[in-house]
Amino acid sequence: MTSVATTAGADAVGRRGAALVVLCFVQFMLVLDDNVVSVALPSMRDDLGFGAAGLAWVVNAYFLAFGGLLLLFGRMADLLGRRRVFLTGVALFGAASLVCGLAQEPWQLVAGRFVQGAGSAMASPAALALIALLFPGSAERARAFGIWGGIAALGGTMGLVISGALTGLASWRWIFLINLPVALAAVVLLPRLVPESRAGHAARLDVPGAVLGTGALVALVYRLLRAGESSWGDATAAGPLVLAVVLAVAFVAVEARAAEPLVPLSFLSFRFRAVANGATLLFSAAMYAMAFLLMVHLQTVLGYRPLAAGLAYLPYGAGILAGMWLSSRAVARLGMRPALVMSFLITAAGLLLLSGVAPDDGYASGVLPGMLVTSIGCGLSLPALTVAALTGTTEENAGLGSAVLSSVQQIGGAVGVAVLVALATRRRDGLTVEGSQYAATEGFSFALVVAAVLVALGAAVIAALLGRARPPEGTPDV
């Protein structure tokens, strides 16, 4: 009897491990598509005949759908079934990838990217919720989230490498078509590995809250994405921002009165998660902007070809993996609050190093040191932030907690890119008398210093507030 129980337990552990592998591969694919188009945009423009404004929406359509629909689909996963919503999202993402890969007109590619973003918004929070439920113990959950966070960050880095390689050696269409086998494998394998899970009581989706919350997020993301095309003070462009504020106020009013709200206010006011999500907002703003600015700097100032610029990011992926390996050990040895403060400060130091890269610096002496320090800090930070942001989530609201975290990351990234790129541009334009390379470098450096300040501010928030927020029993000590 004992041997039978042992065998059953080993099988269950094996299935959980296999499920984690499948979920991580899917997340790698989803995050990779955040920026996989970056290096391939010129080829898409030439093949499909995009105008300058239309080309930007190959990127923006994905972020608009992903960032705007996360909250709605995260709650749907809790109510309708997390595995069901995940598989639907993966299938939708795969179908949209095929449309993108076969697109013959600009509108077809933009539409496919929007549907890709919608599929990601379904699959990503549902996958994170499944991991939270598959690994309920604090230590095993920290390890699982460490793997998850590292793979996700690696996907963001490898998107640039893969895009450069496929665009240079084959065709930009393959950056979408390579998603198909991953999506197919997930749809086939996951039902065999993970049981269905949903909230324990019958509940209805809060339709007014869903419409208002999703509308507010879509309007906000749309305005942030338009920031690069118009001034923040442009009266004609203020409409989406005003609409986002009005819808957000209405959303809070409706949720306060709803019997079964989309986002219970008590969930948002839980201090431990609130501090973690606030720090995540600052961290995401800095890191998304850094990735964008560094890629532009490598190609326009340092003269790297697209493939070389993508390959230059490979050490960044290695640093993230190293940081990921250390993250759970740092939390176990130091506690969550000291580990997070340390990792944020390491990241800030790396950003300051990168801000000093000059036009005549070599890769090994100029770019690589700051890149490695930043990547190790990032690898240390992301898994611990994920654990903290999902602290206290249960069978009832794991999908909601995952969606809130993902929304914070997307909104933070959109804010960071919009604001810091604008700051870099203004700094550059004010120094044109000194030469284009010098001016561009000054703008790049200024923006990265601001990014370092944001991360340091996040460390201060964690140090001041996270220790006063009492996590539920079983969470690593802060």
Describe what this molecule looks like in 3D.
Helices cover 80% and strands 0% of the residues. The two termini are 42 Å apart. Residues 1-10 and 469-478 have low confidence and may be disordered. It has helices at 2-35, 41-48, 52-80, 82-102, 106-134, 138-169, 174-177, 179-193, 207-226, 239-257, 265-269, 271-300, 306-311, 314-334, 336-355, 363-389, 398-429, 436-465. The chain has 478 residues and is an all-alpha fold. It has 18 helices and no strands. Helix 14 runs antiparallel to helix 15 (336-355) and helix 15 runs antiparallel to helix 18 (436-465).
Q: Helix- and strand-based class?
A: mainly alpha
What is the helix tally?
18
Number of strands: 0
**C-alpha-based Rg, rounded:** 22 Å
The proportion of residues in beta strands is under 5%
Overall form: globular
